[in-house]
Amino acid sequence: MATIGIDLASVDENGNPDWLKAQQDGHLRFVGLRAAYGTTPDSSYPTYRRQLDAIGIPNFPYLFLRADIATPEAQANAALAAVGTLNQRYFPLAIDVEGSRQGLTAPQWLDWVVRAKRVIEGALGVPPLLYTSKTYWIDPDGMNNLPAPELADCTPWIKYWPYPVRSPAVYEPAVVDKLTSPPCPPFFGTSWMVQQFQGDAISYPGFGSTVDMDRLHMQRQGDTGDSVKWIQKRLPALAVDGSFGPKTAEAVKTFQGQKKITADGIVGLDTTQLLAWVLPRV
Q: 271 and 176 in one domain?
């Protein structure tokens, strides 16, 4: 069954969410929280993170990168300062790339993204998550279809909305399970680890305003494609062939045993988060 998540920021004006209701009725299993908007820390991040940590819901921070303020280095460092220490049951810090270029050319804007990525990777030791969409990447007003090989080792968080904006939240795992894989920016191939599948959803249990709906890409033996390669690059001595066969399953079980989580060979939420903290092989 699908692993359901949400992401949100103070701008969503949700006040004091009922996380337990979201967990029980909304099948909530993980949350993305905006840590910084440019160089400005998000006012809700510390409170939401404390609340989620207290009840054991995995969560991860993201930086909304802006083209109209400071430098990408300053923004990345502001987000890192807002976040503080992350253990490996969080995903690494994510970079949200979807905003206006604010007069920058596409190559200049890509340079900003790469520079922010380098700061975060230097601080954490692994690449960040990268939130973006194929539509944005090929848009002449977005990234204008630029190649981005340095971003290919990031963990893909892909925006693709098959549901209308501000429609009732879709959160039944059996329904979400039937969604097709999202189209990805060219440098990711077909690889995705998290999909944001609904934007500004309403009527999600425990919330009075809007949230964005996400799902995890759970993988297991028999799967194929670039998402499997993402796994294989993070496990030793595996051929990176995109085929989740018995050798990959055994390598996943070994990794899970080393991390003291259930060694079932399935790459679910815990395993995906832990693998995101492994520097991928080139």
A: no
